[in-house]
Amino acid sequence: MNARIDFFASQTAAPAMKHFMAVGRAMKDSPLPAVTQELVALRVSQINGCGVCADMHTKDAAAAGESAVRLNLVATWREATVFSDAERAALELAEEGTRVADGAGGVSDEVWARAAEHHDQEQLTALVILVGFMNTATRLNVITRQPAGGYRPGQFH
Q1: CA distance to 21, 22, 44, 66, 111, per residue, from 58 (Å)
Q2: Is the model's pTM score more than 0.85?
Q3: Pfam families from the xrefs (predicted)?
């Protein structure tokens, strides 16, 4: 499969992508735990069917020491016993924040409250920005059919 657009070679897209990718890098330095960030990024990628993002976040998480079992169970996190309550709350918020068209009102008060039980205000802020960032990234990649499989851990950091 060939990409429809090379964002980094486009005179129109390259400057915007530089700033857009800076948002993702800024989240890496946020107080939201790195493992939670990778799990959330992977889940949003799965929901939106973005192979290139799933490739990236699976490989980055594995390179950081995340287990294959946990990575393989992200898609079924509700039934899996390998995630902490804080990770589960973050994954739930990520799902509702990604599937906004599936539910009236977006993220429910109950889901927000569960996330707030386990994450302080700065972590919640980072989580919301990360979910929004990942939804944009996945949509850009899916629309333009970016190919997956060639990512090297840490390539964009």
Answers
A1: 18, 20, 12, 9, 25
A2: yes
A3: CMD
